[in-house]
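Render this sequence as a predicted structure.
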Amino acid sequence: MSCLAEPPCHTRNIEMNRILLTFALLIAFSTAGLARGPAIKRLDGSTITPAEIGQTVLRLMSAAEVTGVGIAIFSNGEIVYEKGYGFRDKEHNLPLTPDSVMSAASFSKVAFAYMVMQLVDEGVLDLDKPVYQYLPRPLPEYSNYADLANDARYKQITARMLLSHTAGFANYRAFEDDRKLKIHFTPGSRFAYSGEGILLLQFVVETVTKEPLEELMQQHVFRPLGMGRSSMVWQPQFESDYANGYDEYGRSLGPQRRTHADAAGSMQTTVSDFARFMQAVMEGKQLKAKTRRMMLSPQIAINTKYEFPSLNDETTDEYKSIRLSYGLGWGLFWTPYGEAFFKEGHDVGWRNYTVCFDGPKTGIVIMTNSANGEGIFVPMLETLLQDTYTPQWEGYTPYNKLPPRPPLKRHKQVAVDSAILRRYVGRYLVSPVLAPNIIWTVRWEGDHLTVQENDEPKQDLLPESATQFYTIADDVYTFETDAPGRVMRMVLHADGKDIPAQPIE
């Protein structure tokens, strides 16, 4: 293992020069390959050439330090441009392609919503029937929902509320001070983005259909739309072309090899596949016309200043003019070109955005494998589409208006006897009071330890002492042992908090 402390200045300069040279070569290659393509019509009727698209994307990537970007552009409902830029694996100089598997993050939610609306068409689900009525037992009798036992408002929650993020949940219970699931307001009364709500609907859908989410998505979405490199869990065929995620400092976080299907965020897909999905939504494939209209019709007006944090009470009237609202799975706003529907995706090392203007059938998919990706969304939308309508509610600050990044924490890796390290191998259950259903798995791999939270990507544990370790993401873990050296606790120190976990085997 090598020390991951901040490199000396001359090393950083050499690395930056290498990156700039590589980008220059990519720009030359990309613009030469696309210069003869037809011009693409933008929202206002003006056009942009493929060469200008390439120059714009690569200039923004270089300025904002974005590792890789995949884009697809729609005009008149057709995919008229599709390309990957930068790297899917920077360390090995592997280019990002339209077929590179990337984390969809919350793009997962709209693909799931699309499948749910098909179940509505089939009569399997009623959007307005309280979801608890689909279950064989009262909702609080299921361990994941025991926190709701003393709040009868759970009986009001419907699939419509869950898809429109109006059920009253926080985004995730892990963000609550006591890590418990709560209903914060009368269901249906206001918008508050919630992954918890989507997970509850997944539980109901799997119960009703008696099918796992992955198979449902394959049957209703992926296979019918020809999305052959998309799945809710990692597939062996993805190994041939996948992207690593990168943090804001350009450090690799690896791919997301998910093993459990999560409707709120586990989908793995490609720019090419997700472009097919967006084209299908524009065309209304697999849905009755009235069902598509309902999916893209306002269910709740939005008057919060920002989307996140999701329970923020700051309100504003500034979005009334664009009729900012939420449909069933989709955000909505109105422009001189009619209705636009959009969705964002945000995960550690991944930033995605898509928007389509339903009248002219013009739109874009942007997928990035970089924590810096959101900094280029607004200038890309404005230049490539002439889309100047993205509401401030999204919180997309252009890269050149962001505050400076804080300096990296300094760590010093030390050598620790392997016999000591091997004592820490095992599974650790995080206190359910702090974070339900979280297990950290520590493994001995080759000559070092790794840690993995559930099925999130593994991270190397790098020793700063015999009991304290850090990761590339700057998480710090300590192991507490008794006199004979048996591990009693593993503790994560993050965001000013200490999160303990107990050995379970």
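Summary. The chain has three domains: 9-106+234-401, 112-209, 418-503. Confidence is low (pLDDT under 50) at residues 1-21, 27-36.
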